[in-house]
């Protein structure tokens, strides 16, 4: 991801580092602790194990998961796929074309963090984190599903 393409970050790009930006200066001027905590939940999610499946903690609601189990006739993989489906457009305020353009790369970075977080929390299990660029959907999308 190139910060020079994002207007909000471009002023923090240092002259000496063509690909870098002054992270500390940008964050201390623009990101609150509450925003940092919220981003941490999205980037390195907590998980809920329920009915032998794994769900993103920030998306989990047992009642809704049970409804999906009924609708999908007990198919746990399909339930995980629906519940653990995240559209980045729902989590970020996007108003400029460069921001839209940066989301697919951001989705890939988040996917790597989800894979790592799932492996740390469930070392004996395999997970697939699928990333869609949004061309056939509602913007860049991530989906976490266990492979059993």
Q: Low-confidence parts lasting 5 or more residues at pLDDT below 50?
A: none
- CA gyration radius, whole angstroms: 17 Å
Round the mean pLDDT to the nearest integer and report it.
Answer: 90
Q: How many separate helices?
A: 6
Order of helices and strands: HHHEEHHEHEE
Main structural class? alpha+beta
Distance between the termini: 33 Å
Overall number of strands: 5
Strand order of the largest sheet: 3-5-4
Which term fits the overall shape? Answer: elongated
Strand content: 15-25%
- Major sheet description: 3 strands, antiparallel
Explain this structure:
- By secondary structure, this protein is an alpha+beta fold.
- It has a domain at 46-147.
- The protein has six helices and five strands.
- It has helices at 7-10, 23-30, 33-43, 62-71, 76-83, 97-121; strands at 47-50, 53-56, 85-87, 126-132, 141-147.
- The protein has a three-stranded antiparallel sheet. It has a two-stranded antiparallel ribbon with strand order 1-2.
- A hairpin with an 8-residue loop joins strand 4 (126-132) and strand 5.
- The longest helix has 25 residues, at 97-121.
- The two termini are 33 Å apart.
- The model has no long low-confidence stretch (mean pLDDT 90).
